[in-house]
Predict the 3D structure of the following.
Amino acid sequence: MINQEFHQILETFGNILELRNQGSDKFKVRAYRQAALTVQNLPKDLTEYYDEEKKELTEKIPGFGPAIQAKAIELIETGEVEELDKLKKTIPAGLLDMLEIKNVGPKKVKKLWKELGIENMEQLEKAIIDGKVAELDGLGEKSAEKILEGIKNFEQYSKRTPLGVIYTQLQEILKSMKECKYVEQVEIAGSSRRMKETIGDVDVLATGKEEDHEKIIDYFMQLDYLDGPVEAKGETKVTTYLKGSGTQIDLRVVKPDEFGAALQYFTGSQAHNVKLRGLAKKMGLKINEYGVFKTSDDSKVAGATEEDVYATMGLTYIPPEIRQGNNEIDVSQKKKIPDLIELKDIKGELHCHSTYSDGKHSIEEMAKQAQEMGYEYIAITDHSPTLKIANGLESERLLEKKKEIDELNKKLDIRILFGTEVDILADGSLDYDDKILSEFDIVVASVHSRFEKDNTERILKAMQNPHVHIIGHPTGRLINKREAYSLDLKQIYQEAANTNTILEINSQPIRLDLKSNYVREAKENYGVKFSINTDAHNKEGLMLTNLGIGQARRGWLTKDDVINTQNLKSLLKNIK
Ligand code: DGT
Ligand code: CA
Ligand code: CA
Ligand code: ZN
């Protein structure tokens, strides 16, 4: 985390200096940018370079002059860089926000600021609508429109938190709430329960005796994971914020005989609830957060459990992840809801990194972690050489790695597969030749460059290579950061099916790529198979699989659709 933080700090230094542009700053700007890039690609955590006794960095990091070195040490020791706060005060605060807009860099911000006096996003939006931005030299109608689109995206994104960022915290909250003696039942509802990839706010629902409701609210309020102002506190509801992300969190306390109905209602999605209400109406029923009632005499027919709520409407249970307002209600009426995949079905990991490329832990440490998690196998898929920034492997080191794996396999109770994440190059060829590729047990092929281009041909060609088993993070999107590159998905699905190439569901919180609606289409219309991978760069990262499982369930996948639910023997037999 600290590398990312320092990267951001150095970027901001560079950006502010460029915006102020006082002649002599030019070289400093470049130095900060270079250093920012270096930090992002360091093979180890910055803290690991720090000698606590000598109060200095133990290794010389390329591009770190004395000034940047000092800032790194200050960040490690104090958690902040004081000079940055001072520097920030020298420009209007809104300028840095404007840099967050897609397609807007320091040059544009500076122009907008100097020539039109624009100091924040609201002023920028207004100036675009007024046509002033389009008139600027070097901008024009088209780029003004692009910026406006970027502002809209920024606003939409910046309010939502990636689920993975708060997922563990939510599990902790749930656990603590269950320990409260006044709480009879508690669940996280809303989009978090549906495992949506980003969360607007978190909805917690609890029940207990009516006289205990306020005590439950008070207990919740003193939990360690909450922070910030209390927006509203009533007898049955409180609104506050999560520590860290600042995401809003609501707790509602309801009566025990209404818990199921409330859980159903507040789990949503809204679109699902609308369809459910429509069905209820047709059946002479009325459904709301208090229960299911007969329209004729208002008598209550369900409410205590979610299962009852669905059953009174002639429905089998619908898992939260697929309550999206598609056809899940029809399918449930026909009793055809599939047995969705669960975390316990996963038998191994097929995409992760070790210290042989940009991972933090050794092959042995990664393997032991996987073993502890009950896995049967783990493929260590380090980067190929092209991705120099991530310390890709040259062929001598491959032999070394292979040997290390062979040795470890003799002594460990988990099978380590010799793998690679090979770069798909610009022309769709791969970064290792076929001879080398044939040596690997598992080959994941991924795009790590040319995100602005259409990458259909490139990926099709990679899938046609007989040695490629899996396409890693197929669309390249980064939630809140980067759109997917352009792809003709239908062609990709078709070719994946034709060539028996697996598409990855990458569990990284900001990737979750392939996303769930694509997953469902690829499965149902093309028969594509998937692998749920973590792309872990340290051993803790191996535990992100539950996020990928969430995406897979949202995409209606069962155990049979996912290759790493198979035991090692059938896995090796069934991959191409
Ligand atoms: P979010 O918070 O934007 O990530 O998404 P949700 O789904 O958690 O939405 P939220 O927090 O506004 O409401 C939680 C659930 O409560 C929602 O999924 C369905 C239900 N709900 C809330 N307001 C309405 C409403 O006006 N109509 C209907 N039908 N359901 C609602
Ligand atoms: Ca919510
Ligand atoms: Ca809410
Ligand atoms: Zn990777």
Remarks:
- The chain has four domains: 2-157, 161-254, 260-333, 343-574.
